Batch of 2 targets.
Target 1
Amino acid sequence: MALMLLCWMLFEKNKAVLEPVYEAVRQACQAAGREPIPILAISKNQPVDRILPFLKAGHRWFGENRVQEAAGKWPNLRLQCPDLRLHLIGPLQTNKVKQALKLFDVIETVDRPQLVLALAKEWKIERQRTRKILIQVNTGREPQKSGVLREKLAILIDLCHTHSLPLTGLMCIPPAHEDPAPHFQLLADLAHTHNLSDLSMGMSSDYPVAIAHGASWIRLGTAFWPPI
Ligand SMILES: *Cc1c(COP(=O)(O)O)cnc(C)c1O
């Protein structure tokens, strides 16, 4: 009995971590006239003991930006929580493709032909975890940022189709100090043009705008884990 009470108290406490963020996202969806959308908790740089409360509270969608870091944290967490879902949201090197296919349910950051070829070469659906991929678009044309430029997008999409990769959408990170709205609109337009349904866009500072522009899911880091 005491143990049950303790478990219940822990669950409630863990839920309290998530509830304010869930509620803010619900409100943003409502303001945009949309049903609630999934939230990826971006757990990069977060140790396992700061992720566990999220799992205990029932959160299941997560994102990491480095293959190596994810490999150290997530295989164990998956044993405890087989139904969790992990997205790769950072750049992928071709020599890490094999590892990435075993770790991530979704790879959001395909951005160049060699990477498509490397994915196609290693793709073995029955022996990997990855079920779909997205292409990252460099909507702000920032030289330091990964992502394909919009004029090269069609070629990359064709290459994915040629190799029968399950490409379902697009992802972007707008320039830090610009109005994100035109970037989200551009991403939505490009996805529409190419018949792609998933839009990964919106972070802690701009997710209401992304939701208003049709985000399929948002990626929140600091909203969940404020910098100490
Ligand atoms: C870190 C990161 C996020 C989360 O950003 P916050 O501003 O902390 O919400 C989202 N997307 C990508 C690609 C990231 O690297």
Target 2
Amino acid sequence: MNDIAGDIVARVAGVLPRGGAFALHEPEFRGNEEAYVAECIRTGWVSTAGAFVGRFEAALADYTGAKTVVAVNTGTAALHACLHVLDVGPQDEVLVPSLTFIATANAVSYTGATPHLVDVDEATLGVDPARLEAYLRDIAEVTDGGCRNRASGRRIAALVVMHCFGHPADLDSLVALCERWNIALVEDAAESLGSFYRGTHTGRMGRIASLSFNGNKTVTTGGGGAILCEDAELGRRVRHLVTTARIADGWEFSHDSVGFNYRMPNINAALGLAQLERFPGMRQNKRRLAERYLAAFEGCNTAQVFREPAQTESNYWLNALVLAPEAGEFRDQVLDALRAAGYHCRPAWKPMHMLPMYAGSPRMDLAATESLHRRVINLPSSPFLADIQ
Ligand SMILES: *Cc1c(COP(=O)(O)O)cnc(C)c1O
């Protein structure tokens, strides 16, 4: 084993003992999860009409401060609905970071629009506003119909920002950029429940946002997602859209447009409500675990643990070890050594432009994305690890 990998394993072992088996992120069910799910089964209310759905939405609205919260069955569905309700369609392009989970780009594809890949900032891991601004000056113009890509002739309808590993992107700059260019800002806040930008919960500064409650997220409903929205009318429309566009019509099934069957079942919401009841403590534990990793890598010149950007408070969904540029070539050796020692670490996602279906997508220079892809390793981040000695 080379010295770099050995040193990194030793530092991680200072946080999590050797000889264990540490998953990247495990769900934690220590509250009312079993009781609430059992209640669904006992009462027969297992599907989308049960009372836990409304209670889960209310608890989320309370925690995030969002005006409208609509619970749906996956984070991917939430993002698709966000784009659809903004009238994004086949004639459009949508700016998305190349460094993201596949759902961000796929949700754009489902609308028929073209994902247009943009680079991230190493300081936030989110979309880089300064470089995006310079890029738009090169390729785009603002017209009466919105922002237009001069080369393709298509409208650039939206920018989806993603709060990577829970760390908020530079939202003030991105909001201002979207205003200048007449582009709708959408937040893929799948990873950032419990993350705040200057005191505002992520997902509240764009026009509309999505959350995910997949099994590996900080709060899980098994599978699930939610839409957050500040605009009451847009919120009403998106709720209707994901409820099969159903309208009240006596006993008859009646629908006024092509909607989606995306609502969250009660059984999932029951699990989620129990999770939310304990969420402040889980978030605290995740932040304490991050502090321990940060301390363990102090003074290390081959790798640093990513720290929340200035003016933000992160949920530290997944802790990220960022190798120094000259250590990037050892990423896979470090990963092998960590996994051999029981730490089930993973690299960041393969960037979208390196996948066959998005290799031909329009894109700006993606130097930071490519560099981070070579250098990021996610560390075990389950909340209960904060107290392991
Ligand atoms: C988890 C995640 C999603 C949504 O995933 P689902 O499994 O559909 O809930 C979307 N975007 C990002 C960046 C994610 O990490």
